[in-house]
Design the sequence.
């Protein structure tokens, strides 16, 4: 079993990766959270697929197990859903106590919701992450960010609350729709651009195997990316410094997600990773225009994103609609607009002086045909 | 100005007490939370009385100030109200950023709600407490407990989030209804019983002046009690040990509050302190029955509570209704029922072995006429 420590002093925990791990969640949880009762939080997609296996494992490890469910999808990542989950948890028998452990079983939405539930249940109980999407495996399950959305923006309500363990079973990716796989791959490309140019080579080489769902290849991809995420989080748990680098592609990406994500027709919805891919293309365009990133590097990243079935162009984005959303982004401090820009592949910097005109030019760039 | 430090290392802050402090909240806040914007959270009772003074002070200290309000009363301390406050905060101009500061202006409900709002706004912003009731002055504003109620129990949803300052203006007590003053005095008696027998003498001596609203006397009472609360919190921020002593009177008190508080007719509602007074009388009865507290000490505490217009008797409490609520109390760990019992005046201990029969006997005791 691969075990990657997230070195956060008293809040240290391990990310464990192994095919078939779903059937060992009980024992692994018992090792980090002795308790009478466990509460599985899962959604209407993942619950029917995996909840019974996780429940059986928790039962055999001696927990009394309750389940709290919610309808799948980012539109349900709200304070109202959190309230409905609390109703289920408090109606459970036995009721939760301060030793109880919450088990987040699902993708990023589930991890964010269950994490915030754990952060605020009886003023904070322990939780473990059992991610079932590539995006959650390599990004959202590690680092302790929890939260729900508000009509004013994504993740505006939340807390930093670290899990006591993250248990990743790459076998769960076998049931993941290809569009969700692509969404997760976008965050892997992001990790490569901000920290690890060699990972960019590796993804380029293994793109066909990754898209074919090769389990060993996906396992290695997850481990490589968790190591990067864990190192960034360990260096800056509360996002006061370098953790901001993880927001590469997210300033414009979040704004695009706010206006173009969550379409009534799921086939036309952009997933989080798709918006980040567009955001990375736009940020790279700004960096190229500033003369701080060679055009060839930006083109290489775009080519890889395209190979991974991720978008790099998007027409008809309205700066008048996007700029106010970007100013509202919680990464904005005291009214300034902040961007993460590459200085070369594998290295980024945070700049606070990107002008509206540069953003407009980047959105124009996204509307152009690929060259 | 009296300044009492709450020694919590990197989360250290001062409690400042002085008549007229409301007009200096801006400068005091500026000293601990440089920011562009401040968000006053207050209720429909306190807002009309004091919000304009606090707003003027914050404006003159250079903040852009927004106000978020909610209907007064414990029944509104819910996740739904928190959502309505978030709606107001995110609609404000300028919108909040991570440097923004939340100003809790009001009693315990306001402090708990505003504190949880601050704990979860953009994953945590700073907040200051400006309490306006005796209960909030001496108890809820100090220590970082925040939260909302759930139909299953009080404060079941919340977080530990320390304020960066607590600014107490004893002048606000001039507008406090006497029933609310009595409610706060119950927590003062609690502090005396758990930590400071000399304070019990002091309250006995000064009871008439306190009930008459003597400002100097109330100022000294607040300072004495904040010192006790601050010392307990500093020793055990997250309630893993001695902070549990503050729950003296609260095990049965919370259960009584759940069944007898919040009546439709406010005249017949028991305030928090009234329930704690009953809880202390019941806990003392258990301690006397166990032979660990002299009857005379219990009688002395009851006599003082009665002098302070607090109840020590309550008929028709149904153990079948109260016991399940006590088992659900979040201080319960792994199914055990926990009590704080005095071993002598000024000293308490935590016991985990109180039986249902002892609780039933204590409730019977509450139903007897005073002797």
Sequence:
């Amino acid at each position: 079993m691969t075990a990657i420590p997230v070195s956060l002093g008293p809040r240290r925990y391990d990310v464990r990766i192994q095919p078939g791990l779903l059937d060992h969640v009980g024992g692994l949880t018992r090792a980090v959270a002795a308790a009478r009762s466990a509460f599985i939080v899962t959604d209407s997609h993942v619950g029917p697929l995996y909840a019974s296996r996780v429940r059986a494992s928790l039962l055999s490890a001696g927990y009394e197990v309750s389940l709290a469910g919610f309808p799948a999808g980012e539109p349900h990542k709200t304070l109202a859903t959190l309230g409905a989950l609390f109703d289920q948890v408090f109606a459970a028998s036995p009721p939760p106590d301060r030793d109880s452990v919450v088990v987040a079983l699902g993708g990023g939405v589930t991890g964010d919701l269950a994490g915030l539930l754990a952060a605020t249940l009886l003023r904070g109980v322990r939780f473990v992450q059992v991610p079932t999407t590539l995006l959650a495996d390599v990004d959202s399950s590690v680092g302790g960010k929890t939260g729900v959305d508000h009509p004013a923006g994504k993740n505006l309500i939340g807390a930093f609350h670290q899990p006591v363990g993250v248990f990743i079973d790459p076998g769960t990716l076998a049931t993941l729709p290809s569009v969700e796989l692509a969404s997760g791959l976008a965050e892997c490309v992001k990790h490569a651009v901000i920290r690890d140019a060699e990972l960019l080579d590796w993804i380029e080489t293994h793109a066909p195997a990754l898209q074919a769902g090769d389990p060993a290849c996906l396992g290695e991809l997850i481990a490589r990316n968790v190591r990067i995420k864990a190192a960034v989080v360990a260096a800056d748990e509360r996002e006061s410094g370098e953790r901001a680098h993880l927001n590469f592609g997210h300033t414009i990406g979040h704004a695009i997600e706010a206006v173009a994500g969550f379409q009534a027709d799921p086939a036309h919805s952009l997933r989080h990773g798709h918006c980040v891919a567009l955001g990375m293309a736009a940020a790279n365009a700004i960096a190229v225009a500033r003369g701080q990133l060679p055009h060839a590097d930006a083109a290489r990243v775009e080519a890889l994103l395209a190979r991974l079935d991720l978008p790099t162009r998007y027409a008809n984005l309205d700066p008048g609609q996007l700029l106010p959303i970007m100013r509202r982004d919680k990464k904005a401090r005291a009214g300034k607009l902040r961007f993460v820009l590459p200085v070369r592949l594998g290295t980024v910097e945070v700049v606070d002086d990107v002008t509206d005109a540069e953003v407009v030019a980047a959105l124009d760039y996204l509307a152009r045909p690929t060259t």
About this structure: DSSP finds 13 helices and eleven strands in chain A. The CA atoms of residues 263 and 350 of chain A lie 31 Å apart.
